[in-house]
Design brief:
The protein has 326 residues and is α/β, with parallel strands linked by helices. The protein contains 13 helices and 7 strands. The strands form 2 sheets. A 5-stranded parallel β-sheet has the order 1-2-3-7-6, sandwiched between helices. Strands 4-5 form a two-stranded antiparallel ribbon. Bound molecules: thiamine diphosphate. The site of thiamine diphosphate has 16 residues, from β2 and β4.
């Protein structure tokens, strides 16, 4: 189905927010304002935006160590996210989660995850719950090509296919798992082949093209909602920066990165298409750029001003207390 103008405007805002949010994070780390380990999603925005444009609030998403984009696309508030990265009490997880453990159950975000592959069974569980409770919802797992070597991936796909769960497995194949090229550790040509071995509907999308991701994930999600079972969607994409902020990038060639960055930038491809086809005016895109910039600057201000959590709260949420159990 063709995306409406409203969907396209939301998609652009989502992709621009992910890009600007993370560019701001890199700047803050470089200026010594922000600590911790950060994995940026820049270059992969069309995947999160394309898939989540087909989701509703009661659908569930499980993410990865590269999770800011999935959180933003699923509607998590950027002010709460920024504060979380600053470790402040106004953070979405009260400053306990940081970059790799942002979760917001009200928005259906089951969490970013520091353990590679660990979100896959969580989304499978959400899909099982949706099926048993007949909520009409779907469970979506985002994960990398590296994570498709994990046992949890294979167990989840087997179970989901066997029980026809309303699940979508989105493999973000960016060609690298940390510093190892995918072909060095994955013997199949396409990760999508792995889904077929579980008799699962499997598709490949151009992960730099919002329109392709939107159409293919839309088809998969509609199948899931109709009770026709899960899909593995492999999105061919690329992370523009290193594995983490501070990565010296000695393992990959500059020519490889430059080609993706100059020829395949998902925001630029989107802009060229929507303005070329007269779907959205360029002034609307620039207005969104300005609004997003202001929102992120405001988020930084709020986060910096917020106090750290009270040390007296240290054990809160660590153990189940009588009060919390009620
Ligand atoms: C179980 C586990 N093993 C190893 C690591 C260390 N590690 C963090 S990210 C990463 C690479 C993951 O690659 P991929 O799944 O392709 O995701 P990408 O970073 O490319 O988005 C590894 C090995 C980890 N966090 N968890």
């Amino acid at each position: 189905m063709e995306p409406t103008e409203e969907i396209l405007l939301v998609a652009y805002r989502t992709m621009r927010t992910i890009r600007s949010f993370e560019e701001k994070l890199v700047e803050l780390v470089t200026r010594g304002k922000l600590g911790g380990f950060l994995h940026t999603y820049i270059g992969e925005e069309a995947v999160a935006a394309g898939v989540c444009a087909n989701l509703k609030e009661n659908d569930h998403v499980a993410s990865t160590h590269r999770g800011h984009g999935h959180c933003i696309a699923k509607g998590v508030d950027v002010r709460g996210m920024m504060a979380e990265l600053f470790g402040s009490s106004s953070g979405i997880c009260r400053g306990r989660g940081g970059s790799m453990h942002i979760a917001d159950l009200e928005k259906g975000m089951l969490g970013a995850n520091g353990i590679v592959g660990a979100g896959i069974p969580l989304a499978t569980g959400a899909a099982l719950t949706a099926k048993l409770k007949k909520t009409g919802g779907v469970g979506v797992a985002f994960f990398g090509d590296g994570a498709s070597n994990q046992g949890a991936f294979h167990e989840s796909l087997n179970m989901a296919a066997n029980w026809k769960l309303p699940a979508l497995y989105v493999c973000e194949n960016n060609g690298w798992g940390e510093f190892t090229p995918t072909e060095f550790v994955v013997p199949v040509e396409d990760i999508a082949e792995r889904g077929r071995s579980y008799a699962m509907h499997s598709l490949i999308a151009d992960g730099m093209d919002f329109f392709d991701v939107y159409a293919k994930s839309g088809e998969a999600i509609a199948r899931a909602r109709r009770g026709e079972g899960p899909t593995l969607l492999e999105c061919k994409t690329y992370r523009f920066a290193g594995h983490y902020v501070g990565d010296t990038l000695v393992y990959r060639s500059k020519a490889e990165a430059d080609e993706w960055i100059t020829q395949r930038d998902p925001l630029r491809l989107f802009e060229t298409r929507v303005t070329g086809e007269g779907l959205i005016a360029v002034e609307d895109l620039r207005r969104i750029d300005r609004e997003v910039g202001e929102r992120i600057a405001e988020a930084v201000g709020v986060a910096e001003a917020a106090p750290f959590p009270d040390p007296g709260e240290l054990l809160r949420d660590v153990y189940v207390t009588e009060e919390a159990g009620r």
